[in-house]
Queue: 2 jobs
Job 1
Amino acid sequence: MDLGTQLAAAERGDPAEGLHAVVVLRRIADRLERRNVIAARGHGWTWQQIGDALGVSRQAVHKKHGR
Amino acid sequence: MFERFTNEARQVVTGAVREAESRDDPRVGTEHVLLGIFDSGWAQLSVLETLGLTRRLLVEALDEFDGAALAAVGIDPGSIDPEVLASPLPNLRRRRHIPFTGAAKNVLKGALEEAIELGHKHIGVEHIVLALTALPSHDRTTRVLKAANVEPTQIRSTLLTSLRQAS
């Protein structure tokens, strides 16, 4: 499905489905992030390197995942 | 308001928070309150179970909703690594506080109203269940119940009958 078709479907369709999909995708992204941050730390990555890879600041990633 | 809640009713509330946490949901919603009822040690849980409502069935219905939402935006839920999709890793730093949705707050307020209506002084799990059966049709709990083939009105009448017999 191309983007135009998707947008048309979103306008036609039930917004509840689309909004719920956002929640599910965020959950998947969160879980994916956690797994990979743990893996990166295990590989000796610095918080700076992980932040750069995620496109957020070192402080942001440390606040979320550091202990 | 919580001072009038029975111990079991409090367990529903703390159970709901735990359910939201373990599902990585951003808010404690009515569906988590419903799941919390199964974790509360409520003595009348058999009322729900005789209607065919089990914890496993509810969890399956919620997972199906998640999959249907992804499918609706063109993502095949089967294409996502099931380990990522289904198994939460413990939060390294658990969020202090997950807020309740407006609807979930209304369920707790509704439980108070159900108790007043019945002339009960305490607020128990039965009042929370009654409040959950009075939700609008678009609410996730109403939809989950429908998906599990249980009508909210059916729960309401069965529970009210059982309460009348007990009193």
Job 2
Amino acid sequence: MIRNQLLVCAGGACITSGEKSVKDVLVDELKKNGIEDEVQVIETGCMGACDLGPIVVVYPEGTFYQKVTVKNAGLIVNEHLVKGRTVGELLYTEPASEKRARTSGDIPFYTRQVKRVLRNCGAIDPLSIEEYIARDGYFALGKALEMAPDEIIRVLLDSGLRGRGGAGFPTGLKWKAAREAAGSPKYVVCNGDEGDPGAFMDRSVLEGDPHSIIEAMAIAGYAIGAEKGYMYARAEYPLAIERFECAIGKAREYGFLGRSILGTGFNFNIEIRIGAGAFVCGEETALLRSIEGKRGTPSVKPPFPAQSGLWDKPTLINNVETYANIPQIITNGAEWFRSVGSTKSPGTKVFALAGNVQNTGLVEVPMGTTLRELVFEIGGGIPGGKKFKAAQTGGPSGGVITAEYLDMPIDFDTVKEIGTIMGSGGLIVLDEDSCMVDVAKFYLGFTVDESCGKCTPCREGTRQMYHMMERICDGNGRDGDIERLSKLADVIKDTSLCGLGQSAPNPVLSTIRFYEDEYRAHIYEKKCPSHVCKHLLTYSITPDKCVGCTACARQCPVHAITGEVKKIHVIDQSKCTKCGSCYESCRFGAIRKE
Amino acid sequence: METRMLNVKINGRDYQVPEGTTILKAAREYAKIEVPTLCYLEGISEEGACAICVVEVKGARNLQRACLAKVGEGMEVWTNTSRVREARKLNIELLLANHPKDCFTCEKNQICDLRELAAELGVREVKFPRTRTEWLPFDDTSLSLVRDPNKCVLCRRCVNVCAKVQSVYAIDIAGRGSNSTVSTFLDEGLGNVECVNCGQCLLVCPTGAITERSEIPDVWKALGNPDKIVVVETAPAVRVAIGEEFGMPDGTQATGKMAAALRSLGFDKVFDTDFSADLTIMEEGFELIGRIKNGGTLPLITSCSPGWIKFAETFFPKVLDHVSSCKSPQQMFGTVTKTYWAEKMGIDPRKIVVVSIMPCTAKKFEKERPEMKTAFHHLQEKLGLKDEEAFNDVDYVLTTREAAQMIREAGIEFASLPEEDFDKPLGESTGAAVIFGATGGVMEAALRTAYEVITKKSLAKLDFEDVRGLEGIKSADVDIDGMTLKVAVANGLGNARVLMDQVQKGESPYHFIEIMCCPGGCLGGGGQPISHNPDIKKRRAEAIYREDAGKPIRKSHENPEVQEIYKDFLGEPNSEKAHHLLHTDYCDRSCK
């Protein structure tokens, strides 16, 4: 008889912080106490609160233990399970109120979220199809197979679901086009080539709830008239691939994939294709070439994949998060789906919260949630009492949302109006110490590396932009650089072949729009206002604060600081490499960085 | 079904174009408006890589690629707005920032598409710093072609021609972003992969990134050596194209001027590969007759084209017994010159330098094949030659372009030269030999001879129209006195592959197949002048058939010099001596 269940988060971040050893300790301790038959240990997908990992949740109470280590994991068994005493030291303490949270329901990070896409992530064992079925899994497939394909597409159209890959194209229209396209066979493809720096929404779904994607792809196959699906996943996601593969096997065994699914005569199978690490393969036409075994380079649209995709056949391609919404829409209906979110962007959106924010991790909120709610209520604000400066969305294709838009409801359309994009859901919080020129340069550098090299503007243009950005950050900016950057950016956007190139200049354009003063400071005053760009920094010693302790001189790796004990020290600017060691070592605040 | 006509407005004027027409085609053909392109080659390279042909389409967020975007009903296109011009110019500037500035010494100086575009679009400065900081190494592994990746603009025309037209797939893009280059398998170099040396990539390269391996310096050196007797042979397709290099109209028959120019360059004898083309017909024709009569392997496939031979050796090694054992005319010529002619003239063959002028880059590879030292082996014992004294049958191969370059260097006014004849012997040829330069020509020449030899009757109509023309694959049933000979002709290796797949599967319905590596046959060879005239192959073919029609003798077996060489030297066609000197064998080059 099972009396308790221990849910151990086996998301990527928790695994990295030692989840496997924690789990081993739990299993050992259960055995030592002879209660291994009474307590079941289940490894789940990502629970979202990545900086609190490894996380262990004890059911049925739902007690939420965080930052569990090999040393204290035994307490969960010996105290909680054997003696019935909650382990206080492993509970989460809310920094503001200093109150201990017993369950995830007491933690603001969770309470503000609406889990739809992630509803099973962290709640079930992703390797168990039974647990998925127990949570209404494959109900939607059964229901869909009793509907006419056009009816399914009608529901999707009514739901207003828009593609979660970034562009926000209405999913129902895509399905409709694929259904109506002439040609056979047709294919269903799932884009799991999540590549934006810091984004891991899709990975978490694939790792934590793989059956939801299988179910959705089967529904898609039925709706458009395809018998074959491809799951395209990044090679960098081995765990996701492993779990998805296992799920395909189970689904076949249970008759949710294969021939005559649920006795309806509908056949559908899924194959996994693993990418080779190119960011551009997240672009759908490049992805399709990659599945075909060719070099992943984009081609001009039209023709759209729905008309001519894999092997020139009609192909439906959706992102992981988009698919994850499908079964619930079929089960609960379009109205249910529209019950959260904004009018034009209904439903929820998963964000990967990262950067200068207290709580990092995966969060799912209704579309139309404001940045303030995301950063300050769910994210717990900026660490170290620093000021919020901006949030970067849309990865290398996006831009920034500044403090003045903190209260703007975020959806596909609102972010577009201020020059950024929703993207796949990467949300990086920047505090007052971030240099926006440097941030833009970082993202541009990413695109320069990841451009496939096919078209002139993207291949040659982005690196010329990058050279200019480098020059500016190195203190060699010239009058007219902002105009030159903008002009080149316009042509790159206007003439690049695919979305990667067309959006590559966005981080620069967006930061020029909101932080032109920072660019001007770099170019004309040769100053980096946030003290980030190394070449524009000067370290000097304030004489009246220096006590002559020699700490800085001893730390300086290039012996640029001279001075005798108890005498004022001086930095030789010609030798200084601006490494910042002196600044770190001074206990009297005598080193000035400007 | 009738094609729907769409209404389109281009630069404010109304046009009607069939549904499915690209904006580029609508502009160029219907509106007579030039939209510049760089990476585009109709039907071959349609990738939209260069972003030069961009145009403004009303309602579209971004500029559209005219080469790929199709016209829609009611579309409004603007090809000449400042937004369009600026974008094109800037993209050219970006390419130039990554391009060597050595136009003065570049082989493609006068025919560079990039230079032309920069001039046409009025690019007067490159606002960007040079992006290439270190030079990439040349690929000089091939005996035929040299690639300079520094001049490559990554347009992919070469890649597409190699893959889609030739089905060789020797080159593709490697690396990512600004590190991408056109490369070969594991960067082994063209000389070490399946490249067949056809040079079609060179013809379509818009810059000087692919050129032939030049043998001009060697030839100048030989011509300047008083101890050498330097003879030159010229392939059939050269005479109808070389005039283009000197501003003469496309399709000019420049046979006489070419002979005169070569003599002016200082060649001791100006001979004609057409002579050995007639010889080839004798050998190959009799091989065919023999195989038909004796139940030999059929279909028999021609072997004149060295690009095709390497293709067969690489991709179809199991059916090489279908390929005629005849050497190509170039190689027969070299052997005959250093044996028959040397003997006849009493010249030490070691003193003879054979230079051949070819429409072809693969011939440079062919002459270096180890089998192609027949004259040496034939004479080794007689002359007491050591192994290290081995010499090639053909010493140097110049492309049509290289020959023209030498003529220019020598200051010869080609166009105003009086016409001269070839030297004799080895200078006489028939119309049958001339048409070797066009696809279907070898077939037609062979049929003329085979018919008369088999039936012992005179052929009433010499023109086999069914095998003429530029279609990729042609076939015909030829009645030879009640026997139906089924023949097929393919030009371009992609088409050859279709016929060869049939042969490999044992499903080929044909008795005799002619295969030419290059589209159009030798007249479209990789060594020919680079032309922007889309009809150039047609013009050259017309000239070839005019040349044939004007020849007093039009059947190979009637060539008196050919008859003489058999009488005096070789004996019968396919005799043991002929086999020894004029035939060869092939090797398996497939990857194992």
